[in-house]
Amino acid sequence: MIDQVRRGRIVTSLVTAAALAAAGGLASIAITQLAGTKTGAALALAAIGGPVFVYLAVVAPIVFPFGLFVVLVPFDNLLDINAFGTLTKILGILAGAALLTFLLRTHRAVKPPPALFVWGAFVVWMGATAFWALDQKSVFTMLPTPLELVTLYAAVSIFPSDRNAMRAAAIAAVLGGVASATYGAYLFHSGVDIAGHGNRLWILTDTSEIDPNHFAAALLVPIALCSAVALRTRRLPVAVACLAALAVLLIGVAESGSRGAVLGIAMIVGWLYLRGERRLKLALFAIPAAVGLIALSLRTSIWARFAQALSTGGSHRLPIWKVGINALKSHWLLGAGYNNFTFAYDQAFMRTNQAQFPDWHRAPHDLLLGTSVELGIVGLVLVLAGWYMQFRMMRDVPADDPDYSFRIALEGALIGLFTAALFLDVMITKYVWLAFMLAALLRNAHVRVRRPFGIARVWAAPPPPMTPARRAGGPLLP
Fold first, then answer.
1. Full residue range of the structural domain in which residue 427 is found
2. Would the N or C end of the chain have less CB density within 10 A of its end CB?
3. Is 203 strand, coil or helix?
4. Does the CA dihedral 169-94-383-160 come out positive or negative?
């Protein structure tokens, strides 16, 4: 049996080597024939990297394409590809297909968490509101986005993760956040897209932009991960790397001028203090970090924006919410229809007495109010239930487990994101669903029994239980 396994591995290695050799030959031909052209360079890179990426997608889909999707999530709005949407959308579709292919090939899956059924019901209810929506076209225009996100979440939520897969995804999230914050800091200090935007970082292209509030909110998951790991690790290089990454991420938040993200960070720190064991170490880290953040923020608009919150009505959020509450009185039961808040807002606008004029056709800037107006009490219950189940799905990771730092990090990130969502529209943003997916991967890494699924139950024997030895390490993929 052992000899057969070894022979199988040798054959696999030979096939892989042959594929890479063939790719190298194709690359050489492409470079020779199209030297000096962009097309030639693209063909060469595709020839060299294509087989490797395909191989990874087959044997380790959590590394590629899902890992690349995670890295690029903070850059989502900048990666437009004409009629195809964004690059992250394409990578998300490829990641979902790769994960499902892996499950079908291995005949193994984890029992889906209850949150998956809640989010499924949430999307179904979104579609159902088209029957009574104020503007039916708006429902179907936006509905594919949550449907795609929930589909990818479904593939991740039943993927048989292990500790190394979870850590690979977490590292990808941190790398993406650091790259985004570094890019933003470069633009901010070079003066690009700063003038005329209240001394806040706006990342703009010819066709799209990243709102500073979403830019900062996308950094909350990496901030929580770096903070929790730095507090818990006993390895000095890991702690130094996490603190360096955390410094870059905090600079990005400060330059965004996002008050919601700052409140989210405060909630993350509070959760780490309540659930963590190294509270003195947290204080030693948090105090200089807070001082540095305040000093850095003196060059940005963030503290001025806090000081002006009452006079500006929270950047006109208070007048918007006042109109939204009036709209809610007419649509509290079934809602005005998914993606129809602006139409309900316009209807209620003239019925609302206001000291400030917030303009027509405004977005809700609040998760709870926006959901209530668009989807009614049913949608609000589903959203709250979904967030709660996401938070609770990691409860099986004990305090003495090496992954406990990831648990409190992701719990803190969910609290921080929910706090930011009280001032922002986030339910169809990829960074929120990335937090949900990381929570599902962590939960799945601690499920003790992996079960065959679908028609695989007929011939596939149940895999061995998740023993302490397997939990302590194990392969990147089962």
1. 62-311+358-472
2. N
3. strand
4. negative
Are residues 133 and 224 both part of a single domain?
yes
Pairing of strands 209-210, 203-204: antiparallel
DSSP element (H, E) containing 210: strand 209-210
First vs last Cα of the chain: how many Å apart? 19
Integer Cα distance of 366 and 324 in angstroms: 10
d(CA 248, CA 256): 13
């919410």: which residue's tokens? 321
The H or E element that residue 474 is part of is none
Whether residues 54 and 83 share a domain: the answer is no
Cβ neighbours, 10 Å, residue 436: 27
Tell me the per-residue pLDDT of 74-91, one tens digit each, with 9 for 90 and over. Answer: 998 887 776 677 889 999
Q: Which of 14, 44, 59 is the last residue of a domain?
A: 59
73/54 same-domain check: no
- CA 117 – CA 440 distance, rounded (Å): 13
Cis (ω within 30 of 0) for the bond into 319? no
Q: What pLDDT digit, counting tens, does each position of 100-129 carry?
A: 999 999 988 999 999 999 999 999 999 999
What is the pTM for the complete model shown? Answer: 0.85
Q: What angle do CA 50, 52, 55 make, to 5 degrees?
A: 110
Return the SS3 of 336. Answer: coil
Do 462 and 391 lie in one domain? The reply is yes
Residue ranges in 190-235 assigned as alpha helix (H): 212-217, 220-232
